[in-house]
């Protein structure tokens, strides 16, 4: 595992994280609308 590999892996994770946050937010708001009353 070279430094280059870990850097590119890091950037892949950083690209994925906003998508995960977005999905989590969507699921959370749907869940809240249905069950949070």
How many alpha or pi helices?
A: 1
Structural Rg: 16 Å
Class from secondary-structure proportions:
mainly alpha
Global geometry: rod-shaped
List the uncertain runs: none
Report strand %.
Answer: under 5%
Describe the biggest sheet? none
**Number of strand elements:** 0
The average pLDDT value, as a whole number, equals: 91
Question: Span between N and C termini?
Answer: 50 Å
Order of helices and strands: H
How does this model look, in words?
The chain has one helix and no strands. With about 35 residues, it is mainly α. The longest helix has about 35 residues. The N and C termini lie far apart (about 50 Å). The mean pLDDT is about 90.
How are the SSEs ordered, and which strands pair?
Elements: H1 3-35
Give a quick summary of the entry.
This protein has 37 residues and is mostly helical. The protein is built from 1 helix and no strands.
Fill in the keyword field for this structure.
37 residues; mainly alpha; 1 helix
